[in-house]
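tl;dr need the bound structure. longer version: we got a ligand (fe (ii) ion) that a collaborator sent over and nobodys looked at where it sits. i said id run it. heres the input, straight from their email, havent touched it
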Amino acid sequence: MNSSRRGFLRGLGAGAVGIASGAAVTAALERPGHAASAPSPVFHGLHQAGVVTPAQPHATHVALDVLATDRAGLEDLFRTITERARFLTAGGVPPEIGIAGPPADSGVLGPLVPADNLTVTLGVGASLFDGRFGLAAHRPPALTAMPAFPDDHLDPARTHGDLMLQLCADNRDTVVHALRDIARHTRGGMQIRWRADGFIAPPRPSGTPRNLLGFKDGTSNLHVDDRAEMDRFVWLPASSWEAGGTYMVVRVIRMLVEFWDRVGIVEQERMFGRRRDSGAPLDGDHETDVPKFAEDPVGEAIPLTSHIRRANPRTPASEPSRILRRPYNYDSGVDEVGDLDMGLVFVCFQQDPDKQFAEIQRRLAGEPLVDYIQPVGGGYFLVLRGVRDATDYFGSGLLSLT
Ligand SMILES: C=CC1=C(C)c2cc3[nH]c(cc4nc(cc5[nH]c(cc1n2)c(C)c5CCC(=O)O)C(CCC(=O)O)=C4C)c(C)c3C=C
Ligand SMILES: [Fe+2]
């Protein structure tokens, strides 16, 4: 353990980073009153969890800037995040450290930390490849800073970041607990730049959950259980050090709900190209019906400017730009003039942000929906390949580059 690593852990007590697991956890779970939660998605593997994992109801997306100043410090940071993620996603009993120092755990989840379907997904931004860590020569060309698109209102304080930490779980307190745990163990190594909390509502009344404009959101998406589709559009191929990773785009998009709520239902539905109640395309009856754009070349049933038609025209030319969407709703109170601050934390995964996400974004430019939404932040991040086993850590492939 070098000095900067000791720095992260200082103040936690000598044994505080130990993890009680295995037999101790089993024993704790067997105690009356301790319901066992289902195991979380597997932590070790070629791919990180939290990409093809069915979206859990709660999430936070946290962009961070690295404070460590050299490569050794960055490695310590990655190793610490890995250790904490390994523990938090498995669940267990935090060690007791006596009464002299602060407790080893925030206690937010009680004495037994449940796995609660938690996923911890780590990405790196283009800024990590500046001069600080000797990585400048290794920035993959596809990893750029997120550009500003027409109609964006980007706030620099809510844009970009050296790292992106996506935490998702079945309960809000599990997400909060994981964030506090990781922040505490990495103190001095990184600091939060911006954060967007999200939730997914239950299906109302059935099918795909709704966004805060009232429409089902996620109906037409890539299929996470179709390995060939994931290899074609999402996972990075075996030819480079990034193999097994993917690119994550995060866009914090405010919805101008006060304006939206004054728009007639027919106009709302024509903006999306789908019915609000059922989610069916305007030329169909059921949510899962596939729109028949080829039979409607002038946009009589589904306007040519509608969101679904621009986003996915279903032509051979638009096929390569398909993405895996994994969005969350957000609700952040009110702004300085008393307007509701809510919207969508739009998240998508792909092999190339410019050829996929940005290509769709360019097609969406000028769609009628732009009058009711305002992108205010976000970033492009490379989700590193997964942690292979108990000896591996996030970023080991990146840091092996010389
Ligand atoms: C650049 C990519 C996209 C952004 C940004 C985006 C923002 C955004 N979308 C909605 C609501 C809906 N989107 C829907 C479908 C849809 N959206 C995108 C891409 C972006 N959306 C795609 C690729 C698709 C799928 C198109 C298709 O294959 O038919 C829908 C329809 C239901 C569904 O299929 O999910 C809704 C509703 C909002 C509110 C929003 C910004 C705030
Ligand atoms: Fe969309």
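gonna send this back to them w/ a short note. Confidence is low (pLDDT under 50) at residues 1-7, 9-36.
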